[in-house]
Design brief:
2 domains, 42% helix
Length: 156
């Protein structure tokens, strides 16, 4: 994440996500990004550009359109960033569900190894820790969990 004064951006390779708690803030941040990219000779692809307002107000940003340099930017309620789904109301439910499904698929792919009597218990634990657990917990550092969600993960 880059913080430039009041501008907040998530940047990875050629993907940039503009953050803001209101439509006004998102528009200001997008305008600052356009100015900065033009200065170094880059161009923002209008067709791939979307915005999302993350707000506790369930209707935050609804009904507002963002237009910058005669480009209308589409509002989205969620997007994937580096393999993690980010939602406008910071809900982690769908991401947890997806991660658990991927973990189950991973478990089933190595189930023969884990149920084998030929492998020692320590090796099976290492397989679980190095293959299955990272799939389930990918990106979990960014999750805001309730106690209920935390318990759900522990029970799995």
């Amino acid at each position: 994440m880059f913080l430039n004064g009041t501008h907040q951006l998530l940047a990875y390779a050629n993907d940039v996500n503009i953050l803001g708690g209101s439509v006004h803030t998102v528009k200001e941040n997008a305008e600052a990004l356009l100015v900065a990219t033009k200065e170094i000779g880059l161009e923002v692809n209008a067709d791939k550009t979307k915005y999302m307002v993350m707000s506790r107000n369930r209707n935050g940003g609804r009904g507002h359109s963002v237009k910058i340099d005669n480009i209308s930017i589409e509002r989205v309620e969620e997007f994937k960033y580096l393999g993690t789904t980010i939602t406008d109301h910071n809900s982690i439910q769908e991401e947890m569900k997806s991660r658990l499904q991927l973990g189950n698929a991973c478990y089933h792919s190595v189930q023969n190894l884990l149920s084998s009597r030929l492998l020692f218990k320590n090796l099976k634990i290492n397989i679980y820790r190095t293959i299955i657990l990272p799939v389930v917990l990918y990106g979990c550092e960014t999750w805001s969990l309730t106690l209920r969600e935390e318990r759900r993960l522990i029970e799995c």
